[in-house]
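Reopening this one. Same input as before:
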Amino acid sequence: MITVRRATNADVPALVRLINTTYHVEDFFLHGDRTSEADVRERMARPGGTFLVVGDGANLAGAVFVEISGDRGFFAMLSVDPGRQKQGLGRVLVTAVEDHCRAGGCRFLDLDIVNLREELPAFYDKFGFTPTGTAPFHTPARLKRPAHLVMLTKALLVTLLVVSAACRNGSPPAPVPAPVAEAPPTAGATWDPWNEAKLRGIEFRAVGNEPGWYLEIDNERWMRLLYAYGERMATVPPPKPRVAGDITTFESSGDGHAIKADVTPGPCTDGMSDQSYPLNVVVTVDGSQLRGCGRWLTVAP
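Same output, byte for byte:
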C-alpha cells in the first residue's frame, strides 16, 4: 500500500528533480524548468502551504503542492515519476489533497490547468472537478506559443468534530475530514456520512475523538485509518476478520503501518456528538491505541 506524508526540508532537492522531470511534458510550449529550490522552499514556508509526497530520500515517486486559505484549498505541481506513472499514484495524491483540505476545514478545492494540456480535463473530471473560467498564464514570458489557464473547482463536504480537550484549552475545535463524497447534498438535505460510506461499498466504519479519527474497511480493497485530526493516514490490505467469543478482530499491516481493530458489542456513545452506536471499537495503530464507536454497514461476519 502507498503512504502519503508531508515533505520536509530534506526532501527539497528530490522534490525539485521530481517536479522538473515530470513537467518535461510541457517543453513543447514552455521555456525552462517548472520549479527551483527557491520556489519550493518559498511554497513550503507559506502559512497554509505544504507538499505531500510518496517515497523517501532521493527516491520520491510522487508529489503535489497544496495550500489552504480560509475555506478554500488549492493544489498544483501534481507530479509522478515517469517510471511510476499509470500505477494509480496520481489518484492517491489527489485523494490525499482532498483529505488534507477537508481536515483544514475547506469547503472547496481549486486548481488551474493549461489549456494546451488536453489530457488533463478528463483526468480531473473523474474526481468531480468542473471548469469555472479562464485566466491569463501567470508567466507569459516563458511561453513558446499562446496559452491560458483553465480554472477548475470541486465542492468538498466537511464534518467538524468538536474536540473537548481543545475547547478546554481555549483553542478552536479541530476539523476532521468527512469520507470522500461525489457531490454535495442538495439544498435542505441532511448529509449522513455513514450512509454515504455504505453507498461507496464500505463494510465497516468507526469513529473516535481525542485525537479525532475514523476507520473504514472495504473488504475488497483496503482498511484505512485517518487519524491525528486528519493529519495522518494509514492504508493496509483488507483484513480477514477473526471472531473469538464476542470480540471480532481486524488486523493487517503494510507500507510501514500495522492496524488492529478490536470490535465488541456496545452500546457505545460518542461523547462529542452524543450519538449512540451498537459497537465499541479499540484501534491500535503502530503501537498507539484509539478508542471509539462503530457499526456494520453490511451484514456482520
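So the earlier flakiness isn't reproducible anymore. For the record, Residues 165-296 form one domain.
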